[in-house]
Amino acid sequence: MLFIIVHQTFELWFKQIRWELEAVNRRLSSTVLADREIGKIVSGLQRIARIQLLMFEQIGVLETMTPLDFLDFRDRLVPASGSQSVQFRIIENRLGLRDRVTVGRQPYTAALSPEHQAMVARSEQEPSLFDHVERWLDRTPFLHVGEFDFWTAYREALHDLLGRERRTIDASGDLDDHARAELRARSEKIFSAFETLFGPEADQESMTAEKRRLSQKALLAALLISSYPDEPALQLPSRLLTALIDVDIGFATWRYRHALLAHRMIGGKIGTGRSDPSYLEAAIDQHRVFRDLSDLPTYFLPRHALPALPPDVLEQMRFRYGDD
Amino acid sequence: MLFIIVHQTFELWFKQIRWELEAVNRRLSSTVLADREIGKIVSGLQRIARIQLLMFEQIGVLETMTPLDFLDFRDRLVPASGSQSVQFRIIENRLGLRDRVTVGRQPYTAALSPEHQAMVARSEQEPSLFDHVERWLDRTPFLHVGEFDFWTAYREALHDLLGRERRTIDASGDLDDHARAELRARSEKIFSAFETLFGPEADQESMTAEKRRLSQKALLAALLISSYPDEPALQLPSRLLTALIDVDIGFATWRYRHALLAHRMIGGKIGTGRSDPSYLEAAIDQHRVFRDLSDLPTYFLPRHALPALPPDVLEQMRFRYGDD
Amino acid sequence: MLFIIVHQTFELWFKQIRWELEAVNRRLSSTVLADREIGKIVSGLQRIARIQLLMFEQIGVLETMTPLDFLDFRDRLVPASGSQSVQFRIIENRLGLRDRVTVGRQPYTAALSPEHQAMVARSEQEPSLFDHVERWLDRTPFLHVGEFDFWTAYREALHDLLGRERRTIDASGDLDDHARAELRARSEKIFSAFETLFGPEADQESMTAEKRRLSQKALLAALLISSYPDEPALQLPSRLLTALIDVDIGFATWRYRHALLAHRMIGGKIGTGRSDPSYLEAAIDQHRVFRDLSDLPTYFLPRHALPALPPDVLEQMRFRYGDD
Amino acid sequence: MLFIIVHQTFELWFKQIRWELEAVNRRLSSTVLADREIGKIVSGLQRIARIQLLMFEQIGVLETMTPLDFLDFRDRLVPASGSQSVQFRIIENRLGLRDRVTVGRQPYTAALSPEHQAMVARSEQEPSLFDHVERWLDRTPFLHVGEFDFWTAYREALHDLLGRERRTIDASGDLDDHARAELRARSEKIFSAFETLFGPEADQESMTAEKRRLSQKALLAALLISSYPDEPALQLPSRLLTALIDVDIGFATWRYRHALLAHRMIGGKIGTGRSDPSYLEAAIDQHRVFRDLSDLPTYFLPRHALPALPPDVLEQMRFRYGDD
Fold first, then answer.
1. What is each CA distance from A309 to A142, A316, C244, C257, D321, in whole angstroms?
2. Does position C54 have pLDDT exceeding 80, yes or no?
C-alpha cells in the first residue's frame, strides 16, 4: 500500500513539475523577454526546488519500510522497474539533459511502452530549458555598453588580482619553494583557463575539450550577472541563475537518494562485493544540465577586485521613477 | 558571520554525536549485553540519525550564501580547509571507518595539528562501533538452538525458492531463450554467492574477495534478525540493524552534500572541465562502515518462503509473564 | 494547478494514514495482545508520524502561492471548503476524537454530502484507537504482581520525594516566606492531585472534573510503562506511548498549520481587527485525543526517586533465552 | 548533554538572526532606500525564515528525549527557565513586538539579570523592523503619479466587483433568502471595512479600533505592491512583504512548538485538567508584529478585477536599458 501511494504522489509531483517547467519555458521563449516575466520565472523555478525537497522527504517515508516488507510485493512489480517513470524522462528532456548514462547498450527509453517512447521522443524535439536559458543569456544587453566591454574589464581585473597574489606568494616567508611554485602554477592555470574559455580566440574545439555546453557569450553573461547581483536590473536574473543551480542539484540529489534507496531495499550486486557505482557517478557528474553554471565560481573575483561598472552602465541597470 | 555560526553549530553537533556514540559503544561493550541496554542503544543511534537530518538542513542554510558572498572571506580561511574537522575524523574512527580514500599520498590526518593528530590516532586504537556490533552479532544465541541450525534451514528454503523460480522461468511462454538463460544464471549466481558467503567452506579469503568486513557468523546473525523482526526478542535487535544503516547512510549523504556545497561555492576543477569525482565516489561507496548490512537484502527470502522457526526457538524469543 | 495537485496528494496521504490506522486498530483489538504484534503497531504509528511531517512540508509548498494567485481560482472553489475532507473526519473518528469545536450550531459533518455523512457516522461506531489503547493499558499485567502493588509503591515514593523537597525548602536561606509558601503549596497540590487521580477513592466524578478520558487503571499503567522504559518487556510499550503522543501532536500541528495557511491566503476576519482564534484554540487544546498521555509527566518521579521493582517483577519483564 | 547542546545551538542561531536583523534594519534606515539594497534586504529576511525552519527541526531533535530523561536534570535548571533567552527578547524588540502577554503582573524581563534587563531595554529604544518597514511603505512613490490616485482607482474597482457579485447573488436560483441576505451583508461589510481603513475620513481612532498598527498610507502601499507583483519595480518589494510574513509566522510557530515541547516534557497544569492556553493563544494571535500584512488579503481583488495601471505609471515601474 505505502509503495503504491508514494508512487502515485511522485507521479502527481512530476506532473506539477512538468507544468511549472512548461510555464517557465513558455515565458523564456519570447525573443524579447519582458522584465515582467522574470519574477514569475524565478518563482516557478523556486517552486520546483521546493517540490524537490518534498520529494526527498517522501523517500524518507518509503524508508520506513524494511527490505523484508519490500520483498512482499517485489515479485508483483517485475519486470516493470519502479524508476522507469515516463514523466521523469520527459522532465529530463525538457530540462535539456543529453548523453544519458545507460546500462548496457539499450536506449534509455527501452523499458517504456511504444506510446511512452513516442511521448519521450517528442519531448526531445522542442527547445529545452537549457536552450531557452542559453538564448536569454546570449541576449544580455550589458556585455557591451558604449565604450564598456565587460570581457576586457574583467580580464584586466583578474590579471591584476593574480599579479598581486603572485607578489604576496613571492614575499611570503612561510612558504617553501615547492609550495610557492604550486601556488604560482595554480594562479597561472586559472588565468590561462579564463583566456581559453572567454578569450577572443575561444573556438568551439576548446569549449568542447572543456566539456562546456553553454556558449562563450552566455557564460560571460552569467559571469556578469553573478558578479553584480545587487544592481537593480540584475537582482532577479542572479536569483534565476541560483534557482537553475538549485533545480539541477535537486535532480542530482534525487537520483542519488533513489539509488541509495534501491541499494537499501534490494541489496548489493551479487558476487562483486560492491554496489554498482555507475549510476551513482552518473547521477552526480554527468546527469547535470547546468553544470557550467555550478563550475563558474572558479572564475569569480572577490568583490574588492571586481572592475567598477561605469556610470552609464549603472544608469541603465536602475529604475528612474520619481525623477522625471 | 553565517559561515562561522554554521561551523560552530556543526562542531556542537559533532560533539553530541561523539557523546551518543561513546554511550552506545560503552553499552555494547559488556560481554553479556543485558537486554535492558538495547532499547537505549537503539534510541542513541536513532538520535544520531535525527541529528544527521538536522545537519543536512544546516547545509541548506549555508546555501543561502552565494559563491560571491563566500569569496568575501575565503582568503581568510586559507590554508585551513573547512572540511578538516578533527571531531569528524574521530567520529569516523569510532564508527570503524578504515581505508580512507585520500587525496595524493598524504595520510588523512596531514592537515591536522600534532595534538589533533594524536587525538585522532588514539581514537583508532579502541574498539569501534563496528567491532562492538560484530561481537554482539557473533554472540546471538539463536543460530543454533537444540536441533535447529539456522544456516541449514535457510539454505534449504533458498534452494526450494530458487527451484520454484526456475520451474516458473522454464514454463513461461513470455520469455525468449536469451531472457530465460539470463534469469536462470542470476538465480544460480545468488545461490552460489550464498554458499560462498555463508557455507561451511567459507574462508577468510573468499570473504576478503567479496570485500566483506563482518564475520560469517555475524552476517548470518544479521540475516536471522532481519528475517524474523516480529519475534519479541528480535524487535529491538532488528531496529538496531536498521538504525546502523540509517547512521551509515547519513554520513555518506553528509559527505555527498558537503562535496556538492564545495563544488557550488568554489566551482569546478580548473582545466579539466569536470569536478573531481574521487571524493564523491568515495563518499558513496568506500566510506561506508556497515555496507555489509546494506548489501544483505540480496540474500533475503520473502516471508512466505522463510523457514518456520521451531516451537522451542519461538519460546525462547518471547516473554513469559503472567503464565507462571 | 498546484492547489489541485496538493489537494490530491493530501487525499492520498490521508488514505495511507487510514490504512495504517486500521491496521494498528486491528492488531490492538485482539483480547490478548500477542507481543509479536506490538513492534508492528509501533512501526505503524511511527510511520503515521513520519507522514505527518511530510504533510507539513506540503503546506510549505502551498505557501509558495501568493494570496493573489490563490484568488485566481478561489471563486471556483465556493461553496466547497478545502478543509472539509471526508477522509480527515473519518481519521479523526478512528483516532477517537469527540466533542469537536464547531463553528455555529451546525454538526461537524454539515458540509459533507449525504453519502459522506453516512461514512463518517459509521466511523464513529466502531472502537477507535483511543478505545483500543485504553483496553490494552487496562490489561497491563504488572500493576499487581504477587505482593507488589504499583500504586502503593509509587505513592510512597512520591510522598518521600515531596517530604525531602519540603525539608529543602524549609532549610533554604535564599527564599523569603512568600516563595517558600508558594513552593510548599505547589508540592501539596501535586500530591493531592495524584491522590485524586489515582487514589482508591477516585471516582468517575473527579476524573470528569479533571477532564480525563482514560480510565484510572489505564493512566496508572501508562505511568508504570513510562517510568521503567528500559525493562525489556516495556521497551516497545513505552515507544508505543511516545508514538501516540507524536501522532496526536502531529494532528494538532496540522490543524494549526492549516489555520495559519488559511489566514495567510484569505486574510483576517472582516471588521473585527483580528483573526478568529476559536479554531486555533480548539486545534491546540480540545482536539487532542491522547492529551491524558501528554499531561502525565506532571506526576513523573525522577529516576533516583522511583520505587525499585522487586526481583519477581523484573524477572517477568525480561527474556530468559539461553538459560534453560 | 543534548539539552545543553541544543540550547547552545539555539543561542548561536539567535545570534545569527540578530545579525541579519540588524543588517536589514540598517539597510532599511536610509531615508531614500537605494534599490540596490532591496535585494539584500529580501535575502536577509529569507535567510532568517530558513534559519527558523532549522530551529523547528532542532525542537524535533530535543523531542528524542523522553520526559523521564528530561527530569534527570530539570532540578539543576531551576529557577532559570529555559525559555528566558535574553537574545530572543532582544530579537522580539528589534522586530517591533509590543504589548507582550505576560504571566502574572510581572514585566516580561523580570526573569532576567539586571545587565540583561538593561540590554533588552536598550533594544526597545531604537527604531525596529516594524518602524523601518512602515516608513519605507509610507515613502512608496506610486500611490499618486500624475493624475493617477491608487486609492480612488482601487475603490472603484472594488465597488464594481461587489456590484457584480450582488447581481449574481440576486439572480441565483440556488440560494434561499437567508443565504442571499448573508452573502449580501458580507459584501457590504467588506466595502465598508475598506472605507473605514483606507477612506479619506480614516482617523487614528478607527485604526485603533481595528487594532491596526501600520499607518493608512503604509497599508495602502502594501496593497498596491501586493496587487501588481509582476511589475519590475515591485518584484522585489512584493517578495519583501512575503518574507516579512514568513518571518512573523516563523516566530509564532516557534512559540507554538516551544509551548508544545514544554507541555510534553513537563505535563499539564496541576489540578485544572487542562494545559494553560494563555501562552498559546498569545503565540498565535497577539505576538504577531506584521499581522496587518497577513490580514490584508481580505481586501485583495482578483487579477481580472484590478484597475489597470496607466501607461505613465507602468513606464516608471520598468527598466529602460537598451532603448536610449
1. 10, 11, 61, 46, 15
2. yes
Segment 232-271 of chain D within 8 Å of chain B by CB:
none
The answer to whether the beta carbons of residues A107 and A117 sit under 8 Å apart is no
| Nearest-Cα residue of chain D relative to residue B55 | D54
The cell numbers describing D214, all together, are 501600520
HEC-encoded secondary structure of chain A: CHHHHHHHHHHHHHHHHHHHHHHHHHHHCCCCCCHHHHHHHHHHHHHHHHHHHHHHHHHHHHCCCCHHHHHHHHHHHCCCCCCCCHHHHHHHHHHCCCCCCCCCCCCCCCCCCHHHHHHHHHHHHCCCHHHHHHHHHHCCCCCEECCEEHHHHHHHHHHHHHHHHHHHHHHCCCCCHHHHHHHHHHHHHHHHHHHHHHCCCCCHHHHHHCCCCCCHHHHHHHHHHHHCCCCHHHHHHHHHHHHHHHHHHHHHHHHHHHHHHHHHHHCCCCCCCCCCCHHHHHHHHHCCCCHHHHHHHHHCCCHHHCCCCCHHHHHHCCCCCCCC
Residue D82 pLDDT > 70: no
**How many CA atoms does the CB half-sphere of A41 hold within 13 Å?**
26
d(CA B134, CA B222): 10
- The pLDDT of residue B34 is above 80: no
Nearest-CA distance from A98 to chain D in Å? Answer: 33
Q: State whether D64 and B58 contact (CB < 8 Å).
A: no
Predicted local confidence at residue A164, as pLDDT? 87
> Of the spans B129-138, D200-209, D264-273, which averages the highest pLDDT?
B129-138
Interatomic CA distance for residues C164 and A250, integer angstroms:
58
Query: CA nearest B53: which of B239, B257, B236?
Result: B257
**What is the C-alpha separation between B243 and B241, in angstroms, rounded?**
5
Distance from CA of A87 to the nearest CA of B (A): 26
Residue-level pLDDT at C273: 41
Question: Using CB atoms, which chains have 3+ pairs under 8 A with B?
Answer: A, C, D
Q: Which residue of C has its CA nearest to D195?
A: C271
Nearest to A255 by CA among B52, B280, B53: B280
- What is the percent of chain B where pLDDT is above 70? 84
Burial D260-290 (b: 16+ CB within 10 A, else e): bbebbbbbbebeebebebebbbbbbbbbbbb
Q: Give dist(CA C210, CA C197) in Å, integer.
A: 8
d(CA B24, CA B67): 39
How close C192 gets to chain D, by Cα (Å)?
9
The total number of residues shown for chain A amounts to 324
Dig out the grid coordinates for D113 from the structure.
539579570
Interface test with A, best of B50, B71, B219, B301 (most A CBs within 10 A): B71
Does B173 contact chain A (CB < 8 Å)? no
Q: What is the pLDDT of residue A210?
A: 63
b/e B116-145 (16+ beta carbons within 10 angstroms → b): bbebbeebbeeebbbebbbbbbeebebbeb
- State the nearest Cα–Cα gap between C54 and chain A, in angstroms: 6
| pTM greater than 0.90 (yes/no) | yes
Q: Tell how far CA C292 is from the center of its chain.
A: 7
Residue B16 has its nearest CB partner, among D2, D19, D60, at D2
Contacts of A54 in chain C (CB under 8 A): 54, 57-58, 60-61
Residue B81 in this model has a pLDDT that exceeds 50: no
Q: How confident is the model at residue D324 (pLDDT cuts 50, 70, 90)?
A: very low
C31-52, pLDDT tens digit by residue?
Answer: 666 788 999 999 999 999 999 9
* Beta carbon pairs, A and D, within 8 Å: 66
**Greater confidence, A67 or C271?**
A67
